[in-house]
Amino acid sequence: MGEVREIRNRLLVEADRLVNKAEDKGLDSTPQRQYRDWLRDVPETYKDNPEAVEWKEPPLPQPSA
Predict the structure, then answer these.
(1) Is the CB of residue 50 less than 8 Å from the CB of residue 1?
(2) First-to-last C-alpha distance (Å) of the chain
């Protein structure tokens, strides 16, 4: 689980940047916030089977249509 937490922690830093980038541009940061929430839950969600984690690609900030 230590390796999972290390990966998750690195991805959380990037997720925080994506949230900030979206908000700085006045974009909806909901997808980035949901991704960040998913990352925070990974250790608990996969505590019985950390090998099963399938790391998702972060959603990039997008202008609304």
Answers:
(1) yes
(2) 40
